[in-house]
């Protein structure tokens, strides 16, 4: 796969890439692979969103690769994508379902590599993003078009975003990614009953009845 990626058309100018991933072997492995590409000038890494945001401001990469299994992944996307200057973020290990990809798109990612993606897929995505292009599966493209149509058809103005706590916003992000309460508790390192209480409060604050409706609010604080 690496040899195949090496033979692909290179980016027009050398790229600086930043990798944010919690697993050391994962991020260092990606850095090693990407560092061998002829059109990658430099690669740096961080283990979480907070460290990554701070180091990105100094490193000034062309593209950030972000592992979406991190608890603060969507918030990290928002900070980077809407910062000054804005940073292009490619989401890694994204389940290729409508809900997951739309949540990433609303947060501000410019590309993604699914969980089943290969090194070749990663390099292809990077080089397209470097040219201002996007790559996605046909069914995901159709979902994005449907979402745009729904947004354009809204006649009434949206209500202002509810005032959620930082923890509640984290949980909303994880709900948008399709995680169940048990998975959210494990990801955030808190008790299951605490997650249930937060979810109850979130539904009340957003004035919705179902978890599936919560994801629609993730763009409100982008």
Automatic annotation (TrEMBL):
Record's protein name: Response regulator transcription factor
Keyword Phosphoprotein applies: yes
UniProt source species: Kitasatospora acidiphila
Modified residues (4-aspartylphosphate): 67
Listed Pfam families: GerE, Response_reg
Database matches in SUPFAM superfamilies: C-terminal effector domain of the bipartite response regulators, CheY-like
Entry keyword set: DNA-binding, Phosphoprotein, Transcription, Transcription regulation
GO molecular function, one term: DNA binding
Organism taxonomic ancestry: Bacteria, Bacillati, Actinomycetota, Actinomycetes, Kitasatosporales
Domain HTH luxR-type: 157-222
Any GO BP annotation: phosphorelay signal transduction system
Domain Response regulatory as annotated: residue spans: 16-130
